[in-house]
Amino acid sequence: MFVYNLKINSKNIFKTIFTLMVIGAAIFCIFIACKIIFKNGEPVQNKVYEIEPENYTNVLKAVHDDIDTYVGQKISFSGYVYRVYDLQENQFVLARDMIVSTDYQTLVVGFLCDCKDANKFQDQTWVEITGEITKGYYHSDIPIIKVTEIKETKKPKNPCVYPPDDLYIPTSSFLYVRS
């Protein structure tokens, strides 16, 4: 048989309760931080978002409208290589043709890409890229995709995309299309 002698001291009780509350709050904060950093068991910064033709212009518009929110995110999508005269040697626009009228007039839209192997792909070549969104400058601040993977692919059955869901009015004459 064991007998315990427990002496209750109000100062010790307060210190013990306070210490347990601090430890509990720290565990809660660590738990929340882990939930934010890891979604579905995968670190958020390692997740690659696939851009499909159905949401292509919505994503393009959202990223152009709020670059800072998307910097660092990894994306993957396909399009054709499109160049204009004032791009650097390692740059091209990964483009799609956006239908802007009922008689199928199109406008070139896409992300400016920075790729060390850019010169290996001729204009109008269809490629699939994976890369990270960065903030850069081309006539103004724009998102630039820093390409980490690039491979040639076939032209899809429907290469065109449609305007974003909200009202779209092209206001720029630049070919990188700020939507």
Word description of this protein:
- Helix content is 23%, strand content 34%.
- The N and C termini lie far apart (81 Å).
- By secondary structure, it is an alpha/beta fold.
- The protein folds into 2 domains: 8-46; 48-161, Beta Barrel (OB fold (Dihydrolipoamide Acetyltransferase, E2P)).
Main attributes?
5-stranded mixed β-barrel; alpha/beta; OB fold (Dihydrolipoamide Acetyltransferase, E2P); 2 domains; disordered C terminus; two-stranded antiparallel sheet; 179 residues
Approximately how much beta-strand content do the residues carry? 25-35%
Overall spatial form: elongated
Cα end-to-end separation: 81 Å
In CATH's first tier, which class of the largest domain applies? Mainly Beta
**What sequence of helices (H) and strands (E) makes up the elements?**
HEEEHHEEEEEE
How many helices? 3
CATH superfamily grouping of the largest domain: Nucleic acid-binding proteins
Poorly predicted ranges (pLDDT <50, ≥5 residues)? Answer: 168-179
**Helix fraction?**
10-25%
CATH architecture descriptor of the largest domain: Beta Barrel
Structural class of the secondary elements? alpha/beta
Please state the average pLDDT score.
80
Largest sheet, in brief, is: 5 strands, mixed, barrel
CATH third-level topology of the largest domain: OB fold (Dihydrolipoamide Acetyltransferase, E2P)
- The tally of structural domains comes to 2
Strand order of the largest sheet: 4-5-6-8-7
Rg over CA atoms: 26 Å
According to DSSP, the number of beta strands is: 9
